[in-house]
Amino acid sequence: MKYEAVIGLEIHAQLLTDSKIFCGCSTKFGAAPNSNICPVCTGQPGVLPVLNKKVVEFAIKTGLALKGNVAKRSVFARKNYFYPDLPKNYQISQYELPLVVGGHMDVTIDGKIKHIGITRIHLEEDAGKLVHKGAAGLKGSTGSLVDFNRTGVPLMEIVTEPDIRSPEEAKLFMQDLRNLLVYLGVCDGNMEEGSLRCDANVSLRPAGKKELGTKTEVKNMNSFKSVQKALESEIKRQAEMLGSGERIVQETRLFDDLTGTTTPMRSKEEAHDYRYFPEPDLVPVEPDKKWVDEISKTITELPNAKKTRLMKDHGLPELDANVLTDDKALADFFEECLKLYKNAKNLSNWMIGDLTAYLKVKKIGIKDINISPAQFIEMLNLIDKGTISRNSAKGIMVKMLDGGRSVNDIVAESGATQISDESELLKIITDVMKNNPKSVTDYKSGKEPALFHLIGQVMRATKGRANPETAKKLLTEALKK
Amino acid sequence: MELFELTAHELHAKLDRQETSAEEIVRSVLGRISRVENSVFAFMTVNIDEAITKAKEIDEYITSGKKMTPLTGIPIAIKDNMCTRGMLTTASSKILRNYIPPYNATVVEKILQAGAIPIGKTNLDEFAMGSSTENSAYKVTKNPWNLGTVPGGSSGGSAACIAADEAILAFGSDTGGSIRQPASFCGVVGLKPTYGRVSRYGLIAFASSLDQIGPLTKDVTDAAIFLNSIAGHDPKDSTSVDLPVPDYRKSLIDDVKNLKIGVIKELLGEGIGSSVKSSILEAAELLKKLGAKVEEVSMPTLKYGVATYYLLATAEASSNLERYDGVKYGHRSSEADDLLAMYYNTRREGFGPEVKRRIMLGTYALSAGYYDAYYLKAQKVRTLIKNDFDKAFSKFDCLISPTAPSPAFKIGEKTDDPLSMYLSDIATIPINLAGIPAISIPCGFVNDLPVGLQIIGKAFSEEMLFRVAYTYEQNTEWHKRKPKL
Amino acid sequence: MLVDKIPALPAFGEACREAGLHSIIRSMKVTAKDVEHVAKLARLGLTEDEKKRFTEQLSRILDYAETINKLDTKNVSPTSHAIPMKNVFREDKFLPFEDLQEIIANAPKEDNNIFSVPRIME
Question: How far apart are CA B119 and CA B7, in angstroms?
Fold first, then answer.
């Protein structure tokens, strides 16, 4: 029996605001425990929440970018459950009337465009962080420590329709969604740090059938790869069970990156009764058309559109366009450079190749580099002119980035200018030919590789500064004589 | 008359004429407390040294010629469910037995800015849940008019305090009548402002959509002065309204000519004591004599108020009280080997029976399968009650009724039957459900126990309430009587 | 001192009559199991005595509360906020709270500024 996987995702994105959703505490990651707290986010007796306007703005912006409908009237609700990372023992979230309903995102898979529906987008507050004592995790711990820095950080929850059909699709969707959120400037999309989180609902059904099978919830997927691996593992597990006539138990399963499999979270399914009711301390949000239009205007070009434009207007191949648009900052740098430089493909090669390699090694982003687009272009111009060779440029680029210096400075200092002057090169070639009579004879008797040995000698003699193409041309001519 | 017997406006006049000092006033009040507190038990904590230190500061401020407010140098008692920074705040519950708030409630900040002097924190029914102050986990406050009776609740400590001259002004909070009913039992003035008129930030929440902070005072003038200082928009409270605060003193005019006043029929029928009924009808007659047009009005949905309230208020309360769990502040049980044990035992040890009962009721009303039948239904009935009031206010400028069905009952009389205790709020609860303002003023005595007249207005019509209340007060002498302590 | 006699509040009596109870009998509305379940949801430890008492009291109170079912609310919208308001916001501004130590000082148990709780059993 062939089974079809039916997958829906529940994504939580931490919003990039300066302050928390209901109080003025900082949202900055990595502060000392319990240093970004106040009476409101620690649930002191008598405190009240006040909604951060920018949080609403970001959610509406996301909803518009995903072609969803912004609710005329949206209400907050209390989700009641007891846990130490939840100071009030209820989370202020949204239930019946979320901020955005509907929408979709297009994902390209195997060259085809697939429509993944969005069910809803709503706002809620994040919980604190628990660290367990005396054990690696919860099991066997002797106690736990609670840090409330994260309570009240604004979260945007995006729920997709169960339109996803494969683990790869899920991964692609997450990557595209992440890019979109980064492009919108609402989230920094870091799954490893927890600013972007994903849970999945997975079920199988016989191919072609409409009824949904029993679903399981998969949690603890901390990277795009994990999302794919976890879903692959869970689909395999369910298929095996169904194949042997077993029933799927509706449960929550946690993914373990080390084993690559999921295990059930609770041995007995304990359904939570969250006792949702409208939050009496907050009033409804009713965005008017004027505000929504203003927000709409702040949406600049989105990743898919940018990709298409780079391919169309600058003739870039899809692969290049993909890599560049994946990182908004990289794309921005690229476009800044294009204002001063015409050869888009050459620029792309350098940026995707050497520049990206440098960023990876230094573990920084393009926002952190020390040179400007103009300075980068200076280097490319020198290569095009022949003043420096491609090879030496690689090293020069590193020096530029390390020291934030201009290419001209570095070249002047190291005397690394490329020797393209033919008369100068001829002198060196004559010397090399004199000093390498065997290679000369070898080449003349038909051994082509000997030429490369001679070119190598020329490069050695010029400390790499000889323009290799010119040297090759002159040598070849000289050897003909 | 002694300083402690005076009103805030009388003391302000004396301070202004330099006939007395803040320190003299504070010492007079502290002296009074030391003499009668062992009979009344109004306070949880009294700030003896701090109050005198503050009074000295205020005196320096005054003598240096700086501008006074009507509250400068006035000793104020604060109900112990309002957060006072650095001062023990218990909500009269064991679960907050050692809680020292890191911040001041907004209204506390306001009165401090105005130069008032906090004299102490008053006793209440635990978490403001009750109508007699007998639910306090610490002590039972006595009604100064008859120490064998209750002062009412939940702001019983504050009301008793004012009746016994143990403070000049007092803060109360009102969710279903908790300012007005004790005002009625103790023969003082108590006002519940329109919902959102006064900030709730720093008020330990009971039922968020019903709670309001308000004044308990010796006369109507003091209530107007006090409200002036505490009303106003607070950016820290999303439910506080952004409307300008009028000068309520301007409403203190002795004139009700041609005002249309409705007497609520259902609140003078069965269930209301006959002597209470007479007092109210006499008050209605007086207002008529003073030129108002007084007529009966029927409000048929009012009788569903108590049932509605005990579903809505307990639901919100059950959620508001979830934070008391031994993790961050307050009591933590010593029987806490694991997290669940800590939760169960802390809350078992920390909450009294009435609080537990209401948490259970509220949790039940919100739980899966019952939400529609209980909580949602109650919210709809709330709309009906609100509509009833709107209809009445299209005809009348204000409405009157008794504040409570009877004067103060005996201590211990109703503690065995929670439902009977709930039903004594029948006249005050609907006002909270509708979010409208109401004031209780003394209007008579039954067996030497005070009876209160409740005047109800539409939203943001406190000016109307003050006008009618002031007129009645100026034409009667009830407010001049004091209990013999 | 004599206090005015408190009449039996007929509102309650009326409700009982309407609910079909001719005398105040023990209602079976809320069971002991319900009480246990609700106590669990509310993390409230109850003694056996309390469980019994609450079962009876909650039943009576809910019987009374159900009188609101007599009202026709088919076309009535619920009131969450008595004074209708909307769109109350604050600006996205970082405002540090200065007195952090006073928050930590109330912790029943803490470890180097971090709130400590007993082990969480699975």
Answer: 15
Q: What is the pLDDT of residues B146-167, one digit of tens each?
A: 999 999 999 999 999 999 999 9
Mean pLDDT of B336-356: 96
Across the interface, do B82 and A46 touch by the CB < 8 Å criterion? Answer: yes
Q: Which residue of C has its CA nearest to A40?
A: C97
pTM of the model: 0.89
**pLDDT tens digit string along A31-71?**
999 999 999 999 999 999 999 999 999 999 999 999 999 99
Neighbours of chain C (3+ CB pairs under 8 A): A, B
CATH architecture of the domain C8-72 equals: Orthogonal Bundle (1.10)
Residue B133 forms part of a structural domain: yes
pLDDT class of A479 with cuts at 50, 70, 90: confident
Confidence check: pLDDT of A271 > 70: no
Burial A184-199 (b: 16+ CB within 10 A, else e): bebbbbebeeebbbbb
* C-alpha separations of B166 from B4, B37, B434 in Å: 7, 8, 33
B238 within 8 A of A281, measured Cβ to Cβ: yes
How many C-beta neighbours within 10 Å does residue A158 have? 25
CATH of domain A422-480: 1.10.10.410
Neighbours of chain A (3+ CB pairs under 8 A): B, C
Domain that holds residue B187: 3-259+438-480
Domain membership of residue B76 (yes or no) is yes
Residue C61's SS3 state is helix
Query: Taking the alpha carbons of B237, B239, B241, B246 in that order, is the dihedral positive or negative?
Result: negative
Number of independent structural domains in chain B: 1
* Six token digits for residue A345: 């493909």
Torsion angle defined by CA atoms of residues A196, A201, A207 and A211, in that order, rounded to the nearest 10 degrees: -140
Give residue limits of the domains in chain A: 3-292, 299-414, 422-480
Size of chain B in residues = 485
Please state the domain extents for chain C: 8-72
